[in-house]
Amino acid sequence: MSQNLIISEETISDKIYFIRNQKVMLDRDLATLYGIQTKVLKQAVKRNISRFPEDFMFELTETEFLNWRSQFVTSNSDKMGLRYAPMAFTEHGVLMLSSVLNSDKAIQTNIQIIRIFTKVRQMLLDTTEIRLDIAQIQKKLENHDKNIELVFSYLDELTEKEENKKPRTKIGYKK
Length: 175
What we know:
Layout: H1 9-13, E1 16-19, E2 22-26, H2 27-34, H3 38-47, E3 57-59, H4 62-70, E4 87-89, H5 91-100, H6 104-163
Antiparallel strand pairs: 1-2, 2-4, 3-4
């Protein structure tokens, strides 16, 4: 793999969005990464539309598109010439793009993108495991609190018994 084909992980991960509860990349970002025009990417997809079911690729609704644009306050989206809603590609859709776009750059870029998606998935799994561990610790702490309260209530009962205890009669020699 030549050096000029390597794209930084940060560049790719900055272009992964969370839309419809899925991690996706938009057509214009993918086209930039592949070094082609968005129009060329869309044409390749439309020529092979049977390879891109709804769970691989979907077009953003107007509301989703406006929400996405509003995330980029400094974006000059009016100058972007967006006449059509962007296509959003899931991880599987990005993978399928490698079979539609056959340039070396597209193939190498796809490999990098899939690696980033895998890393993001692993980070989410790690985060979920940490959350479960924290929940277990919280549960244990709640049980400890209950047990400590129980111990204190027993101590209170014992103290009350000591205070209410009648004096014992002494056994032995009396003076």
